[in-house]
Each structure stands twice: as structure tokens, then as C-alpha cells.
Amino acid sequence: MTSQHAQQLINQMQLYQQQMQAIIAQKENLNLQISEINKAFQELSDSKQNEAYKISGPILIKMPVSEIKKDLEEKKESAELRIKSLEKTEKLVNEKISEIRSKLSGTGSDASAG
């Protein structure tokens, strides 16, 4: 392996590592959102009120609790789907990083160098 080829692989691995960091940050953000949604849902469930206020941009809107709960459930499902998608991407990026490490350490076969 030439030093130029090795440098290209190192650069590629650094890009994958940056991508991995971005994925992890997004997953943490989504998990935090899910936690906040769960707390809000629990507060609404504990409340004896039929209506509550929902923030919509810069204003508060009075809505039935059932509609707010439905909205929270939809947001939670969306966040969970995004996490699953990120996990798939994370797995692929990890595989790419492992491949590059293998090539750099000299254990990669010439057939996989394409």
C-alpha cells in the first residue's frame, strides 16, 4: 500500500468518524426529545383537566388533552423512527470504519481493496 493510498484511507476514516459523531449527537437529541415527550404525556395523564395549552410557535393554544396526547404520540413515533434510521446508518458507518482499519493494518485482502 502506498503512503498516498494510506493517507486517502485515513482521510476517509476521519470523515466516517465525523459522521459517526453527528449520528450520536442526533440520537442523543432525539432521546432527549422522547424523554420530554414522555414527561409531558405523564403530566397530561395525571391532570384532571379536559383541556390544556399547547405551544405553537410564539403562542399558546388551548386544546383538548386528548388531541395534545395524540400529537405527542405522533412526535414520539416519529423520533423513534428517526432513531432506528440513524442506528442503521451508524451500523453501516461502523462497518466502513472497520474495513478501513483492516486495510490500514494490512489485514485487508487485495480483493477487498476496491
Could you say what the CATH topology is called?
Helix Hairpins
Percent of residues in beta strands: 5-15%
CATH class value: Mainly Alpha
Q: Order of strands in the sheet with the most strands?
A: 1-2
Label the structural class: mainly alpha
How many E-type strands? 2
Helix content: over 70%
String of helices and strands = HEEH
Largest sheet: 2 strands, antiparallel
Number of domains: 1
CATH architecture: Orthogonal Bundle
- Mean pLDDT across all residues, rounded? 91
First-residue to last-residue Cα separation: 13 Å
Q: What does the overall shape look like?
A: rod-shaped
Could you characterize what this model shows?
With 114 residues, this protein is mainly alpha-helical. The chain has one domain: Orthogonal Bundle (Helix Hairpins). It is built from 2 helices and 2 strands. The protein has a two-stranded antiparallel sheet with strand order 1-2. A hairpin with a 2-residue loop joins strand 1 and strand 2. Helix 1 runs antiparallel to helix 2. It is rod-shaped, with a radius of gyration of 23 Å. It starts with a helix and ends in a 10-residue tail after the last helix. The C terminus is likely disordered.
